[in-house]
Amino acid sequence: MAGIEEQAARQVMPRVQLIVAADIKPEPIRWIWPGYLARGKFHVLAGAPGTGKTTIAMAFAGCVTSGNAFPSGHRPRAGSVLVWTGEDDPGDTLVPRLIAAGADRARVHFVGYTAMDGERRPFDPARDVDLLAQAAAGIGDVGLIVVDPIVSAVSGDSHKNAEVRRGLAPLVDLAARIDAALIGVTHYSKGTGGRDPLERVTGSIAFGALARVVLGTVRMEGEARKMMMARAKSNIGPDGGGFSYVFEQIDLPDNPGVSASRIVWGEAVEGTARELLQEADFVQDRAAPAREEAEDWLRELLEPGPMATDDVKAEAKEAGLSWATVRRAKDVIGARPRKNGFSDARWFWALPDPKPTQNGRGTYLPVKVSTFAPFDQPRGFQAIAPMSTFDATTEDAHQGHEDAHVTEDAHQATEDAHLANPPQPAKTTEEFEDAHLDRVKAPPAEVGFLP
Prior knowledge:
Oligomer: single chain
Largest sheet: 9 strands, mixed
CATH topology of the largest domain: Rossmann fold
Number of helices: 14
């Protein structure tokens, strides 16, 4: 009797299955689009907002459902597509884009609600993948699954590796079971320009690590409308290379008042993913590091003393910095435009004056103010003269123009207007420092808060 019980216990005990490699038959990758979309594999399509990731996904659906050619010219065997979307409305956005892409809409199926016990609830991949597999089996020829955004498949923290893998596992297994390519659409993280393409994918690195192919989209440098899709990673084929594309907005002739965007593919591009995605990176992704570089550059430039605005502009051009970026950097570091007391009344940029400090008795200590340090004459002049005090309204108006980042011509016109109204005669150094001493003895202003 005991032997029978032990045998039964062994039968229900969990065990690990070992598969001998000699029993596994080598199989080729089953490509829907050679090098880009493979059956039974997970793919990520990532990019910054405005690069048409969802429109590209609908273009892929158009090729799969109708057998139309992909950008490389390859024509797939026609099949069906499943789309699970959490962002765009099928009626006013996705279906019009499918029509514009030439899709066979009879082959496109949107994942809706899950019905259970007479009630409806949102589709949950953690619980409902088996039900979705049953529904897909009824279709019979599913070649592509689109999940937009893929982060919606993760019920936990999308920045944690384990939770991302746990959340994606049911969908990845589904794609393998029904032999369909799975595409997850996602964004780049902000401020990641110039980094490795896989590191740019938002959330946990698991999104890019779990995917067999990662496609990245970027706006091409110097092009107002031209974009590019490149292979950032492929574990099952070559990476690098890609295709340029543009958006085209069209009216749908059989649907009055309805328009949609579609992808118009261009030429193939060559190069590694890092080269391509860095070369054609977003301007806004480059803006932050470029501005930080300009801030450091401008501090160093003005550290010896004030410099004429025209000279700053010339130095910026020599350093390869745009004037708009330099003006923004000026605002960040607190540099102020000032006018000297000479007859030609040129404008200068200068770092902010040091702030007054208090001693142990709470008295404000005077700050030795010199608009030009003893060894720092304004560059471009042979003689020293104290800087004049000028009307605050004039300075505020000038700063308002600076803050608005007007064009260089408009900015120059503003400075010309100041030249037409020369400042009052310069005070002596002693008068200027006495006036400043009177100001710094006053208590500091309080900061007011809105209710």
